[in-house]
Specification:
Blueprint lengths: L2 H20 L4 H10 L4 H11 L1 H10 L8 H24 L9 H26 L14 H16 L4 H12 L4 H26 L4 H22 L4 H21 L2
């Protein structure tokens, strides 16, 4: 790996780690960078998935305060994320490239729509569960519909992964009457589970560019801490605007620049 390639990957990884902590879709920075540097698409996707995991972990750690009291509702969602990620990772290795990408833009647009509607949806859930929509509320437990949605998002995350955080924030915001910051914290945990599960499959069965993974890991770890620190201080409206903008950019990129 040349010095230029290492610097480019490191810079992309720091930015991606920060974006993943706040929203998700940071892979839309690192994955194209690897492609531009000459890595084959599947190798780039696999290596990127493994390399961003330290950023997912540091982002989850940075949001540890907001994770307080969420173990009960996140546990079944974690199982769904694991099962979905395993399915998606195996699909990536078994199916022709590009099949799942056909539906990715639609999924991202739906996720953005859910983020925009999150305040009203949370209020509706709160009225049914007699819970406040504030950050200290005890939100409703995971429903079968939410479990299915998280599973399918895990399938997508295991297969490609970019913007899975946008979709997860929309889903969690729709079903849980809680603050966006706490929802974002839960999203970080689920994304970490998805990426780690897929990474284990890839390390066993796929070709990995380990030099690139090492640089990605270092950069994403730093970016995850930075993103968690910044993201926790953002007002909900600002965070929601960032989520929608990145989601729209992600969808446009996947449609016109696949």
């Amino acid at each position: 790996m040349s010095l230029f390639a290492a610097v480019a990957i490191l810079a992309a990884a720091v930015a991606a780690g920060a974006i993943n902590a706040v929203v998700g879709s940071g892979s839309l920075i690192t994955f194209p960078t690897l492609l531009a540097l000459g890595y084959p698409p599947v190798v780039a996707n696999v290596s990127n998935n493994i390399g961003v995991i330290p950023g997912n972990v540091t982002a989850s750690f940075g949001y540890r305060k907001e994770l307080t009291g969420q173990r009960g509702r996140l546990s079944p969602l974690a199982v769904a994320s694991f099962a979905g990620a395993l399915t998606g990772a195996l699909a990536l290795l078994a199916l022709p490239a590009g099949i799942f990408k056909l539906v990715v833009p639609a999924l991202i647009v739906v996720g953005c729509g859910l983020v925009v509607l999150q305040p009203r949806l949370s209020a509706w859930v709160a009225s049914r569960s007699k819970a406040s929509a504030g950050g200290d509320a005890k939100p409703a437990k995971a429903s079968p519909v939410l479990l299915a949605g998280v599973f399918l998002t895990g399938v997508y995350g295991g297969y490609f992964g970019a913007a899975q955080g946008v979709i997860l924030v929309g889903l969690l915001g729709m079903f849980f009457a809680d603050s966006l910051q706490r929802i974002n914290a839960g999203k970080n945990v689920l994304v970490t589970i998805v990426n780690t599960t897929a990474a284990i499959v890839f390390m066993i069965f796929a070709h990995v560019a380990w030099a690139a993974v090492g640089v990605l890991a270092a950069g994403s770890a730093v970016g995850g801490l930075v993103g968690a620190r910044v993201g926790r201080r953002l007002p909900p409206l600002v965070l929601r605007i960032i989520i929608v903008i990145i989601g729209i950019v992600s969808a446009v990129k996947l449609i016109f620049f696949p």
